[in-house]
Amino acid sequence: MTGNVHPLKIASAAQSLRHVFVRDLTLDASIGIYDHEREGAQPVRINIDLTVLEAATDLGDNIQNVVCYEAVVKKVKAIIGAGHIHLVETLAEQIAENCLMDERVKVARVRVEKLTPIPEASSVGVEIERIRS
User: Fold this and answer.
1) C-alpha angle 42-45-47 in degrees, rounded to nearest 5
2) Residue 85 to residue 13: CA distance in whole angstroms
């Protein structure tokens, strides 16, 4: 593969990888390129898969020793709350970039779906995968 897109390695004991995920996070977002999309928020569904390097030591049942999915969700909410975004691609990139700020996260796969723009479709959107360089 070229660039920063690689296959996601999910939960591998041999490679000491853990899979942290957020499924079907549905939020209202000000997103879109059309004037009517600036008039109000619309529902988006977000799925996040993170490949996380496991610690070499025991977790000690301590939240500080893991990538916290609640913290990931709070960051997504902050990105959406920061203001209007034109493209689902931009939202996905910002989420992935934010997830990769945690050095334990090696790969981030993010799917962003708009749920109402095309009546004949249940959703439209984009999925990206980014790897720590």
Assistant:
1) 155
2) 38
Least Cα distance to 30 among 98, 107, 87 occurs for 87
Q: Where do the domains of the chain lie, and which CATH numbers do they carry?
A: 17-131 (3.30.1130.10)
Please tell me the predicted confidence (pLDDT) of residue 64. Answer: 77
pTM of the model: 0.89
- Each residue's pLDDT tens digit, 10-35: 788 888 899 999 999 999 999 999 99
28 contacts: CB under 8 Å, gap ≥ 6:
41, 42, 43, 44
Phi-psi region at 90: left, alpha or beta (left = phi > 0; alpha = psi -120 to 50): alpha
E strands, 30-68, are 42-53
Beginning with the edge strand found earlier in the chain, give each strand of the sheet holding 124-131 in spatial order: 17-29, 42-53, 105-114, 124-131
CB 47 within 8 A of CB 25: yes
